Amino acid sequence: MQNVISNEVYTKKKRLFFLDNLKIFLTILVIVHHVGQAYGHTGGFWEYKSSLHENINALGYFFAVNAGFFMGLFFMISGYFVPGSYDKKGRSWFVKDRLIRLGIPALFVFFTIQPAEMYFYNVNYVANKPSGFFSYYFTRYLGFGKDMSFGHLWFAENLLFFTLVYVLFRVIIPKFRIKSDNNINILSFIFITGLSIALISLVVRIWYPIDKWIGVFFIIQSEVAHLPQYVILFVVGIISYRKNLFLKLGNKTGYFCIVIAVIMAMIVHLHFLIPSVIINFIFDKWAIYESFMAVFICWGLIFFFRQFLNHTSKFVSKIAETSFAAYIFHFPIVLAVQFSLDKVNIYGAVGKFFTVSIISIIATFLLSYLIRKIPYVNRVI
């Protein structure tokens, strides 16, 4: 029987470095994912178009696997930290802190970064070009046109909403507690999670296919197709904290998750080696396949990072502190690098993709680190 330290005791003795390192990995994956949108098949919108028409067909499958889990894992990790933070800070201070750390960045992107990016797109790729930035800003962007959005800070906006719903739940049912002393079969819990996401997603995607974005309650920018996954994994994170599941996850279950995750991801990437009848079935029932792939990848990564990357250094800790800032500022940096290298041939599309990815990752974390040095900024991000 493994000895398991409680969350409270563990975090007092040692920070959960594996979660810091996992957030760094996910942030880098987000950057690379967005770099790839200029050079691969994606149903999503991107503000830059390669003038050399560089294209990598395989990136479409890279996008499919990534989109299937990485933002869900962000919500899961975020949910994990919610109960402890609420218990420590109390309702009022917790809500104030979340409004500052999630609301301010979302509004900042909404009023500054997003309109600048969309102005860039309109100037370069739209026939009806704006006469100037301020004209565009006040008449087209703030004129309630289709350009107005929170951009990639939809994540912060949704996370803030989920968190406020959690607070409301605690207020309405103050005595409700998830008992930490009751044992739970983690593998069964993982299967139930995957099944729940799959069944709800199947229904939701009848009306809301992948990449269809709407304003939930007219203001919460959401891709509804993945919303069941985000909500459920956020709740899974909360349960995982109360039940100490991230630390209780045993070797047998952890390695099983890794193996299943790798197999399911590789089937997508190496689809050309799989009988067409199987591949066609997978993509026809993608909501089911993606849901189970997502939960196995999420738990597999949590186990892998806990087992092998639960340590840090001064350099890595600085990067970890910068992760959220990097998420906020990576978008315009990626666009700037792509546009700067637009007419440069770097060993074709693959060379361009890797070059832009590396430059964007380094530039994003470096610039984000410097931005956090500005007085009071690090109190927000």
UniProtKB/TrEMBL annotation:
Keywords: Membrane, Transmembrane, Transmembrane helix. The keyword Membrane applies. GO terms for molecular function: acyltransferase activity, transferring groups other than amino-acyl groups. The keyword Transmembrane helix applies. Residues 18-371 form the Acyltransferase domain. Pfam families: Acyl_transf_3. The chain crosses the membrane at residues 21-39, 59-82, 102-121, 153-173, 185-208, 214-241, 253-274, 286-304, 324-341, 353-371. InterPro entries: Acyl_transf_3_dom (IPR002656), Glucan_succinyl_AcylTrfase (IPR050623). PANTHER family: BLR4337 PROTEIN, BLR5718 PROTEIN. This is Acyltransferase 3 domain-containing protein. It comes from Clostridium manihotivorum. The lineage of its organism: Bacteria, Bacillati, Bacillota, Clostridia, Eubacteriales.
